[in-house]
Amino acid sequence: GENVEQHPSTLSVQEGDSAVIKCTYSDSASNYFPWYKQELGKRPQLIIDIRSNVGEKKDQRIAVTLNKTAKHFSLHITETQPEDSAVYFCAANGPARQLTFGSGTQLTVLP
Amino acid sequence: DAGVIQSPRHEVTEMGQEVTLRCKPISGHDYLFWYRQTMMRGLELLIYFNNNVPIDDSGMPEDRFSAKMPNASFSTLKIQPSEPRDSAVYFCASSFTSGGVTDTQYFGPGTRLTVL
Questions:
Q1: How many residue pairs from chains A and B have C-beta atoms closer than 8 A?
Q2: Do A32 and B102 touch, CB atoms closer than 8 A?
Q3: Residue B108 contacts by C-beta under 8 Å, 6 or more apart in sequence?
Q4: For residue B11, is pLDDT > 70?
């Protein structure tokens, strides 16, 4: 089955700096890659996703890039703010609509 | 839409007791997923349904766990008997498939289960 690895497990940045989280996947048939943000005690919520027919997608301060050849994708957050502090999960889809999640990155934005 | 609804939000029980977690997916969604989240194991897929039919239960840890989806608007996850190692947050999520394309999974608020 699909295996998704996520790095780093923790990341601290100064407010206003950029943050990058990277994921690799194993199944070359995967074609959907969402990113979820989970605040403490809350549910995971989708912040951005990308499909295999594009290499990059942006939404304001958030962007995701995908390299299908290398089987890796990354989340980029620019101009970080304290409210960006949370756990971020990447995921990749399997053949039957299921998602395999990475292990999560605890992002801390220091004021 | 109210989103995915789960109940109860918190459950504290004693080892050996039966626990039933409930989920109402978003109306019109055809996929329903049950996940378990712990610090040690992260977010694990337990089982998922398509049009009320279980598709893959290979993530269910053992026979003490069972799940049903009697209709499109209701699913249960049952643990019998419960053990302390079952303590976790259990999430239900649903999604809608359009044109055979994987779509966004929307998560419920979760049930925090504590087994003493």
A1: 48
A2: yes
A3: A43, B3, B4, B5, B6, B23, B91, B92, B93
A4: yes
